[in-house]
Amino acid sequence: MLQTRTKQMDIGLIGTGPMGSGMARTLLRAGHKVTVYNRTRQKAEALAADGATLADSAAAAAGCGIVITMLANDDAVENTVFGADGVLAGLTRGGIHISGSTISVDLSKRLTEAHQGLGQGFVAAPVLGRPPAAESGSLFVMAGGETAAIERVKPVLTDLGQKLFLVGDQPFQANLMKLCCNFLIFSTIEQLAEVFAIGAKGGLEKETIFSVLTESFFTAPVHKNYGRIIVDGAYDPPGAKLGLGAKDNRLFLEAGAELAVPLPFASILRDRFLASEAKGDAERDFCVIAERAAEDAGL
């Protein structure tokens, strides 16, 4: 869902997996000039046909002055930013790094300090939505950072999604907000899985349960979208792999430890993710954790 055309900007985008490639196409449709880089060049080459320019390094992509990283985990972000020919090396003084990745609060703080030390800006802008939402420009974007930096990149953030939330003046606050959102997604999957399990043991059809829930009080996208995946057993191909869900839940638990907040439900989810990995489901959609509730019920 593209917004009204905003000021055209020169943007680098690093990480052209399912989410990053969709975001790149959305920005191109909005009229921005987009330079892309991916460690595996082949994954970026397809975007050239859509009008993107290919960069040979993360530093080259960061040379645009505004660069988005959309990478899988802390290690990938850290290597891309701090490594040789990385974002820090290529971003000019006054340039802004937008991190769309779901990363730890600790890494977000270290990125903020590193960029500030070089006179660069850093905005954390993680998103809610799966690859189809990235492709259609209908993500929800949560931004944290200095007001001046966010104002400069607001045309980019606005064009990426259907709604932009300003959640705090510290980048890590946006990362914490994203971890909270993902925890609620995982918790909802667990709730649905338990409801489907007890319903099945009582002779209720999954479709009946799903219809009653999603056509009454439980009409949120999180119930409809993830409930449908569970009902259909649509875990292959994955919209988001099990490892990503496990990583995000682990980061949520780490944030709880740092802030001295007990998170008992997150500990249950940790075990669901571990059990699914042990079952050989690492490459499947993270909704596959719902199968563990069914197994516990003897189904």
Automatic annotation (TrEMBL):
Keywords: NAD, Oxidoreductase. SUPFAM superfamilies: 6-phosphogluconate dehydrogenase C-terminal domain-like, NAD(P)-binding Rossmann-fold domains. Pfam families: NAD_binding_11, NAD_binding_2. PANTHER family: CYTOKINE-LIKE NUCLEAR FACTOR N-PAC (PTHR43580:SF2), OXIDOREDUCTASE GLYR1-RELATED (PTHR43580). Residues 174-289 form the 3-hydroxyisobutyrate dehydrogenase-like NAD-binding domain. This is NAD(P)-dependent oxidoreductase. Residues 10-168 form the 6-phosphogluconate dehydrogenase NADP-binding domain. The keyword NAD applies. It comes from Acidisoma silvae. InterPro entries: 6-PGluconate_DH-like_C_sf, 6PGD_dom2, 6PGDH_NADP-bd, HIBADH-like_NADP-bd, HIBADH-related, HIBADH-related_NP60_sf, NAD(P)-bd_dom_sf. GO terms for molecular function: NAD binding; NADP binding; oxidoreductase activity. The active site is at residue 178. Transmembrane segments: none annotated.
